[in-house]
Design goal:
Length: 339
């Protein structure tokens, strides 16, 4: 198999475990024997479990000797809850390692150097841009920034209303868009709302299939509730998933707490006020907006006050993707910031 094709398989394997590995990165690995045949694949387990390379080597067994291992992230060189992947690769008799992006963490980096010291040939950078923009995107950002990567998700009518004037907001978008939101939740470590949304909508914030069957893995539910307004009987407090209540006054403080708990990606599903606070603080890293082909003419807008009072102060966005989702349109964009 061509190594580029094998690396794409590794990237897909990493994506398959998004939302399940933090604080470890979602990595995929593929083992090719000397003839180029795939003899082992693996993806990172939840924290405390084997890394992608270990799973791939175990699947390959004796055929790992003399093989080439392709992995989306530089193999780790440290002992944490598990041993160094570099040692496992050397012990298995791997001849060559190809990785997409280097590991930026001080404790785990340096794997390439150790591999070369063990006599293993190393190549870096294969599909690096794809890897950095894919499953590793949030983890790499969080590692550099020291806070979780934040995706703000909202659903609105074509004129930007997230609810009608009477407050009703259920089913603005169609079933396909709502199903896509569950995919977003599944790929994040935590889903965050404010007390206003919790009181108005009583959301459960779990990952569910279209038939309402709950997924086997759930993100952490987080509610910012400084005054203890959300009642104990709220759906956020059921046993479908873990829930964390934060009384932080500032978005940055809340994200700092979450990062300390191992959260590397957050899906912000709060209302306009909370979204405005995060945007104003420069703490939104990606926007996913679902626009329904409907008009209301009145009702709250998707974004509350965010410190932009003139057109010159508008936060400009770079559009990454525009996709039709059922009858609705999904726009994915990132804030355009000065470096």
């Amino acid at each position: 198999m061509d190594e580029t094709v094998a690396m794409r398989i590794a990237l897909d394997l990493g994506r398959s475990v998004l939302g399940r590995t933090s604080p470890n990165p979602p990595v995929g690995a593929v083992v090719l024997d000397a003839s180029g045949e795939v003899v082992g694949t693996g993806a990172t387990s939840p924290a405390g479990g084997p890394h992608a390379e270990i799973h791939a080597l175990e699947a390959a067994g004796p055929r790992a000797r003399g093989s080439t291992v392709l992995t989306s992230l530089e193999p780790c060189a440290h002992s944490g809850r598990t041993g160094p992947c570099t040692v496992a690769l050397a012990t298995a008799g791997v001849a060559r390692v190809v990785y997409a992006v280097p590991d930026p963490t001080p404790q785990a980096g340096g794997g390439a150097k150790q591999l070369r010291h063990a006599g293993i040939a190393v190549q870096a950078g294969l599909l690096a841009a794809d890897a950095a923009a894919g499953a590793l995107r949030a983890w790499l950002f969080a590692t550099h920034a020291g806070r979780p990567f934040v995706t703000w998700k909202y659903a609105a009518t074509l004129d930007g209303r997230v609810a009608a004037a009477d407050g009703s907001s259920r089913w603005i978008t169609g079933a396909a868009a709502r199903a896509d939101v569950h995919r977003l939740r599944a790929e994040c470590d935590a889903v965050l709302v404010g007390s206003g949304t919790a009181l108005a909508d009583d959301p459960q914030l779990t990952v569910r299939a279209p038939d309402e069957t709950p997924a086997d893995h759930q993100p952490l539910r987080v509610v910012l509730d400084r005054r203890g307004r959300v009642p104990p009987g709220a759906r956020l407090y059921d046993d479908a998933a873990d829930t964390l209540v934060l009384d932080e006054a500032q978005p940055a403080q809340a994200l700092k707490q979450l990062y300390g708990r191992g959260v590397r990606s957050v899906l912000l599903e709060g209302g306009p006020t909370l979204a405005g606070a995060f945007v104003a603080a420069g703490l939104v890293d990606r926007i996913v907006g679902y626009l329904a082909p409907a008009l209301l003419g009145a009702g709250p807008a998707a974004l509350g006050p965010a410190g932009m009072d003139t057109i010159g102060a508008a936060l400009r966005l770079d559009v990454e993707d525009i996709t039709r989702v059922g009858d609705d349109i999904c726009i994915t964009a990132t804030p355009r910031r000065e470096d």
